[in-house]
Amino acid sequence: MAMGEHQVDVGSSSPPSFDFMQDVHTGGSQVVGMGESKSQNLKRRHFGLFVSSSAAAVSLMSSACWLTFAQPAFAAASPGVVQDARELYAKATDAFKQGDVKESAKLFDAALSLVPEAKPRLWQRGIALYYADRFGDGEEQFRDDAKVNTSDTEEAIWAVLCASQRGKASFESAAADIVDISNERRPVLRQVYKLFANQADLDSLLALKKDDGGNADFYALLYAGLYCEARGSDADSLRYIEQALATRYARSSGDFMVDVGRVHVNLRR
């Protein structure tokens, strides 16, 4: 399979309980993600998601992945409904990658209407909503995500991003209402959380870059750029995200967040 082999067992009767956003979209040279333990990696393999150890790393976000991770929500749905939702999800993801964010958001909405119980696992919808300027809906999506993804700071961070862009809300008021997350295991994302909670400065995040072009560099620069957007510093935002996209990780990874960076730059230029 292109850009890092993966296989998804959509027939698994015991779907994984770990966090999709945290454990799947990180990768690069550390295929198991920043700080993932061997036991967590084995858990992932047990549930049918196999990721190659090649430099290409992780091929991400197939509709089958979403089906697997949201599987409890499909218990009462007919096979036809599940298939329709899967196809809509795939189209929504493709539309986002192509930069058609409003169409992507509509397609995610359509998928969600078929299986509403799957909403807390549909973080990609939240990102599409952010770029479609549907900030209230995006904040709601990420806050719903955070209720089940209690160890992933990214849900809370994106909720702040949405809130800071909604109406007359300031970054300070959005940061003051950040979702409480305490079990994030990735050092860079822990610092990003502090930044978006208004408890740290940008230099403290950039100090965690390893300057090796890996995933730590990519994520530090990506979120530095998003932070600058939340603060209204558009030129700095573009500069940091363009630097993120120039990393070795961004050039070789199938991480959906790399697509987020590309879409961001294309929309904001």
CATH topology: Serine Threonine Protein Phosphatase 5, Tetratricopeptide repeat
Proportion of beta-strand residues: under 5%
Share in helix? 55-70%
* Main sheet overview: 2 strands, antiparallel
Give me the count of strands: 2
The secondary structure category is mainly alpha
What is the second-level CATH architecture? Alpha Horseshoe
Put simply, the count of helices is: 15
Write a compact overview of the structure shown.
One of its GO terms (cellular component) is chloroplast. The chain is mainly α and 269 residues long. It has 15 helices and two strands.
Topology:
Elements: E1 6-7, H1 20-24, H2 38-46, E2 50-51, H3 63-69, H4 79-97, H5 101-114, H6 123-131, H7 135-148, H8 153-165, H9 171-176, H10 187-196, H11 202-206, H12 215-230, H13 234-245, H14 248-252, H15 256-268
Antiparallel strand pairs: 1-2
Helix pairs in contact: 3-4, 4-5, 5-6, 6-7, 6-8, 7-8, 8-10, 8-12, 10-12, 12-13, 13-15
Description:
- The two termini are 33 Å apart.
- It is built from 15 helices and two strands.
- It has a single domain, classed as Serine Threonine Protein Phosphatase 5, Tetratricopeptide repeat.
- It has a two-stranded antiparallel ribbon.
- It has helices at 20-24, 38-46, 63-69, 79-97, 101-114, 123-131, 135-148, 153-165, 171-176, 187-196, 202-206, 215-230, 234-245, 248-252, 256-268, and strands at 6-7, 50-51.
- It has 269 residues and is mainly α.
